[in-house]
Amino acid sequence: MGVKNRVMAKNDKLYIYETPEIHDATLLIGLSGWMNGGRVSTETVGFFIETLDAEELAEIDADEFFIQSFPGPMEIAALFRPHAIIEDGLVTDYEPPSCVFYYSQEHNLILFEGDEPHLRWDEFTSLILNVCRNYDVRRVYFIGSVADVVPHSREPRIRYSGSDEEVIHQLSEYNFNISNYEGPASISTYLTVRCQEEGIKMANFVAAIPVYIDGRNPKCVETLVRLISKIIGVKVDLTELREDADKFEKKLTEIIESQPELAERIHQLEEDYDKEVFNREMGDLKNWLEQRGIRVD
Question: Under CATH, which architecture does the 7-62+97-292 domain have?
Answer without folding.
Answer: 3-Layer(aba) Sandwich (3.40)
